[in-house]
């Protein structure tokens, strides 16, 4: 091979992830590696809420098409952005490098109140376009006002600083990776016991062509079997609901020796309002059974998602 071309979105976080994987690939191959930026539908329609965008794979479809066409050789994604069904001809050659999967609330100082839920004062405006986050906020802090927000991590932080919101909730992984200066803001990291993240949050995914005999042996060296198992649990549950980022599902998995544990919540909605959460936890040694048990427990509480 003359070179390996790594495809990615152009946001600061996506470029950080691509550079990170490029460095890891550079440690296991002497082949030159370069990064190519590809704009996705989610980047173009960056002012619309996710539930207003048609189709699926908002942040991945165009990158996957470039991979299939041979324009790039490797695609780097946040695993939580990927659909649970892989396009024919592609594979997840490596899954790993999980950063802290918790959520973080960034708060303007005037709205900060450590005695209130989420450390945000009553009546404050919280930015989030994620239905998973919205249903959990409505459950734990019903006196907060929810308002849609779009944009990459630095854009959301800028909108917070401008006063468009009193607080925003973000994936802690992205904030940590970008090493943002947040000294002018208050921050509260939310424990998994209080607030569940998206399936696969904080995990990096490296996608390749299934039949690429030159690239796959290189990329596969980056795979982490334990993190792949976590992804199998969390995204396995997402797949059972045939859902994407528009599904109000939160998950968190733990692996202790041969024991697997999966925690999950599913938002309940009625007449356009969040009316509660279905909660479930399952433990076992067989991944598929743990997923199935969690799925059945959630469905038994919320038949409309069966």
Assign the structural class, choosing from mainly alpha, mainly beta, alpha/beta, alpha+beta, or little secondary structure.
Answer: alpha/beta
Q: Low-confidence parts lasting 5 or more residues at pLDDT below 50?
A: 50-56
Share of helix among residues? 25-40%
Identify the strand order in the major beta sheet. 2-1-3-10-4
Q: How large is the radius of gyration? A: 19 Å
Compute the number of strand runs. 13
Please work out how many helical segments DSSP would assign.
Answer: 9
Termini distance? 48 Å
Oligomer: single chain
- Overall CATH class of the domain at 4-96 and 203-223: Alpha Beta
Topology:
Blueprint: E1 4-8, H1 12-26, E2 33-37, H2 41-44, H3 61-69, E3 74-78, E4 90-96, E5 103-107, E6 125-127, H4 131-140, E7 145-147, H5 153-161, E8 167-171, H6 172-178, E9 186-190, E10 204-209, H7 216-219, H8 225-240, E11 249-256, E12 259-270, E13 273-284, H9 287-301
Parallel strand pairs: 1-2, 1-3, 6-7, 6-8
Antiparallel strand pairs: 3-10, 4-10, 5-8, 5-9, 11-12, 12-13
List its traits.
26% strand, alpha/beta, globular, five-stranded mixed β-sheet, 29% helix, D-Maltodextrin-Binding Protein, domain 2
Would you kindly provide a written description of the structure presented here, covering whatever features stand out?
Among the domains are: 4-96 and 203-223, Periplasmic binding protein-like II (D-Maltodextrin-Binding Protein, domain 2, 3-Layer(aba) Sandwich), CATH 3.40.190; 103-190, Periplasmic binding protein-like II (D-Maltodextrin-Binding Protein, domain 2, 3-Layer(aba) Sandwich), CATH 3.40.190.10. The chain contains 9 helices and 13 strands. It has 306 residues and is of the alpha/beta class. α8 (225-240) runs parallel beside α9. The radius of gyration is 19 Å and the shape is globular. Mean pLDDT is 91; it is low at 50-56. The strands form 3 sheets. The chain has a 5-stranded mixed sheet, with helices on both faces. A 5-stranded mixed sheet has the order 7-6-8-5-9, with helices on both faces. The chain has helices at residues 12-26, 41-44, 61-69, 131-140, 153-161, 172-178, 216-219, 225-240, 287-301; strands at 4-8, 33-37, 74-78, 90-96, 103-107, 125-127, 145-147, 167-171, 186-190, 204-209, 249-256, 259-270, 273-284.
């Amino acid at each position: 091979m003359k070179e390996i071309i790594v495809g990615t979105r152009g946001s600061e976080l996506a470029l950080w992830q691509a550079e990170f994987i490029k460095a890891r690939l550079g440690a296991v191959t002497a082949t030159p590696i370069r990064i190519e930026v590809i704009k996705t539908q989610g980047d173009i329609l960056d002012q619309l809420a996710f539930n207003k965008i048609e189709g699926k794979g908002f942040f991945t479809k165009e990158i996957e098409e470039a991979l299939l066409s041979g324009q790039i050789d490797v695609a780097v994604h946040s695993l939580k952005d990927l659909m649970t069904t892989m396009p024919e001809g592609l594979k997840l050659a490596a899954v790993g490098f999980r950063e802290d999967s918790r959520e973080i609330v960034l708060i303007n100082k005037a709205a900060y109140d450590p005695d209130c839920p989420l450390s945000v004062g009553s009546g404050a405006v919280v930015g989030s376009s994620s239905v998973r986050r919205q249903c959990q906020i409505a459950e734990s802090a019903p006196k907060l006002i929810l308002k849609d927000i779009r944009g990459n991590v630095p854009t959301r932080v800028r909108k917070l600083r401008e006063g468009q919101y009193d607080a925003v909730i973000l994936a802690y992984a992205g904030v940590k990776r970008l090493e943002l200066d947040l000294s002018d803001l208050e921050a509260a990291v939310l424990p998994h016991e209080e607030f569940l993240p998206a399936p696969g949050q904080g995990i990096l995914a490296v996608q390749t062509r299934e039949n690429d005999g030159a690239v796959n042996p290189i990329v596969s060296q980056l795979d982490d079997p334990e993190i792949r198992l976590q992804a199998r649990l969390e995204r396995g549950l997402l797949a059972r609901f045939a859902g994407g980022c528009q599904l109000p599902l939160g998950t968190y998995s733990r692996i202790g020796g041969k024991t697997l544990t999966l925690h999950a919540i599913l938002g309940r909605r009625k007449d356009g309002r969040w009316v509660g959460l279905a909660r479930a936890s399952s433990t076992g040694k067989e991944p598929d059974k743990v997923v199935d048990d969690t799925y059945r427990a959630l469905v038994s509480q919320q038949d409309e998602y069966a």
